[in-house]
Amino acid sequence: xxxxxxxxxxxxxxxxxxxxxxxxxxxxxxxxxxxxxxxxxxxxxxxxxxxxxxxxxxxxxxxxxxxxxxxxxxxxxxxxxxxxxxxxxxxxxxxxxxxxxxxxxxxxxxxxxxxxxxxxxxxxxxxxxxxxxxxxxxxxxxxxxxxxxxxxxxxxxxxxxxxxxxxxxxxxxxxxxxxxxxxxxxxxxxxxxxxxxxxxxxxxxxxxxxxxxxxxx
Length: 217
Fold this sequence. Notes:
Structural class: mainly beta
Number of helices: 2
Radius of gyration: 21 Å
Strand content: over 45%
Number of domains: 1
Largest sheet: 12 strands, antiparallel
Distance between the termini: 57 Å
Helix content: 10-25%
CATH superfamily: Calycin beta-barrel core domain
């Protein structure tokens, strides 16, 4: 067998192994497969979710001129709607295979039904490394990439390079750390999250929590 033939054979084997690896990523855990792509535990989220009747709560630093006083904790009872849709798959640096779902989160005050939080992002599944990423932005010129171990009960954390923000936010309401726990239990979704801020010259833990029920797929 010539050297050229050996090289061609080895190349064919390498391509075949790579294709098989990606196919396994897509086909493993059939319960998480949508349109041939393996979304792992994220597949359970596809659909529309709404808060239970009890709703959730947001605890944020109060604005100047409010009853609580600038920087004091202010609790806001809330309800929300979250919609998850299949997005796409992608390969990073020829070796990290990812499957992503897009989500939209809209949060409203119970007191007057006004929307006070709007968030758009992606939940991204890395089957090989059993990792989930939450990559999102909010219209305050702040974006976050948090990551953690994949599962039905996940804790996703961001800090340092996982946080991007405008110069104004960095100087006046800087996000230092983000932690989110999300639990999927059939048609029930529960989450808690904490954003560590440096605002009004002092640290503040901005927290949100809610329980949502799937209303359609």
